[in-house]
Design a protein that fits this description.
The protein is mainly beta. It has one helix and 15 strands; from the N terminus they run αβββββββββββββββ. Keywords: Signal.
């Protein structure tokens, strides 16, 4: 009887997950005319390579601790699903690199970013919603917004986000367990595009963005 009681919820879990269907968007090839990619006096980009891997290379030319820039396609509408990509801090100085999702515009989005130079500490991963003209990270310094992870200082690492309603799960380098689980995503940011995110950071590399939209 005990085995049966364990088996029934397990079977239900398997059935629910087996029924999930996704629409896959492979965004590994960036078409600039279909993306928002800022380039001005303070930030620049180019299509280059890092560690012999083709990548979008982005650099903050003038340091600004209030700077946060999403880089995203204009024709994507994401609510729930799976986001994966590869990131690398490729330069010197500050290192703040990551992803943005449910992007409304340049100042309204959810972001999950990484600090490779803070590897192994609770500052390695940072979640926050952005809804102001300046990137106000100082409002989200509490431990509940951050998590530990082992990140390479100047090499590629893989990131996977699972977004479901108000819940975010963060996986690094194909680990079986999430490095971070956050269950209070901003209710005012319900849907929007998905893309890379570049903070007050030196030269960084981004590649292999794949978005799976949950039907």
């Amino acid at each position: 009887m005990k085995n049966l009681l364990v088996f029934i919820p397990l079977l239900a879990f398997i059935c629910v997950n087996a029924q999930q269907k996704y629409v896959v968007h492979d965004l590994s090839v960036i078409k600039p005319k279909e993306w928002v990619i800022p380039q001005n006096d303070t930030i620049q980009y180019e299509f280059g390579s890092y560690k012999n891997q083709k990548a979008l290379m982005v650099q903050r030319k003038i340091g600004d601790y209030k700077a946060g820039t999403p880089i995203y396609p204009t024709n994507l509408n994401f609510r729930d699903g799976i986001i994966e990509c590869d990131l690398a801090f490729a330069g010197k100085g500050n290192a703040y690199i990551g992803l943005a999702f449910r992007i409304k515009d340049a100042h309204h989005y959810e972001t999950l970013y990484f600090r490779p130079l803070s590897s192994g500490t609770i500052n390695a991963i940072q979640y926050m919603p952005e809804k102001k003209a300046d990137f106000n990270w100082w409002d989200y310094e509490a431990d509940k917004y951050q998590a530990k992870a082992i990140l390479p200082h100047n090499d590629w690492f893989h990131v996977k986000l699972i977004v479901t309603g108000s819940k975010l799960e963060v996986y690094v380098n194909n680990a079986p367990k999430p490095a971070m689980v956050y269950s209070s995503l901003d209710p005012s940011l319900k849907n929007g595009s998905v893309g890379y995110w570049h903070g007050n950071s030196g030269l960084s590399a981004y590649k292999n963005l794949v978005v799976k939209l949950l039907k």
